[in-house]
Every structure is written in C-alpha cells, then in structure tokens.
Amino acid sequence: MAPLHLRFKRKDTTAFMLVDSSDSFRKLRLRLAEMTGLTAATLRLYLNTKDTFLEDESIVADHAISDDAVISFTVGEEPLSVVDFTSAQKGGAPVAGAGGH
After folding, report:
1. Using one digit for the tens of pLDDT, what is the confidence trace for 6-53?
2. Cα angle vertex 82, ends 80, 88, to 5°?
3. What CATH class does 4-89 carry?
4. Contacts 24+ apart (CB under 8 A), 87-94
5. What is the radius of gyration, based on Cα positions, of the chain?
C-alpha cells in the first residue's frame, strides 16, 4: 500500500507526516513530539476531532484513514506510558516508561 499523507492538528499548529499503513500510533506520537517540541508522554491522538482515541498499539491500517486525513492531537496533564522507540527500531526490546521529550 502507498504511504499516506496525514495532517496532525491542534489549535494553530499543523504538522504533516508521510506514514505507512503499518505504522503504530505510538510511533506517530513520538514523531509528532519530535516535530513539535512537545512531550510525547502527554500527547493524545484522535481521529475525527476527538471522536476516536487512537491507542498506541493500534496501527494506521486498523482505522479507515485515507490520504490527507486529519488527526487531532491534544496535550494531556497525565503522562501516557512511553516506549523507547529508538531501541525497538534497532532490534532491542522496547523500554516501557522510557523518556519522551
């Protein structure tokens, strides 16, 4: 399947990402934090303007997300569990609760 262009929006902030249908929302949340300078552990991703919370474990293909879709994001006060995605990419085991930004 071809990569999708997604828009991540919050108030006056819009970030654009090219994603694969196999990407997890955990991965996208960490990328979004890096792009925006926000703390990954407090970001929440939603489909259809907060109608559907996008769980970290789910992937893009799990939802009816089309090219140029808008993913809303908020910044919560309570941190979500963050996995050290860098070590997981390098073949290591994900580290639960590890940093973020």
Report:
1. 999 999 999 999 999 999 999 999 999 999 999 999 999 999 767 899
2. 155
3. alpha beta
4. none
5. 13
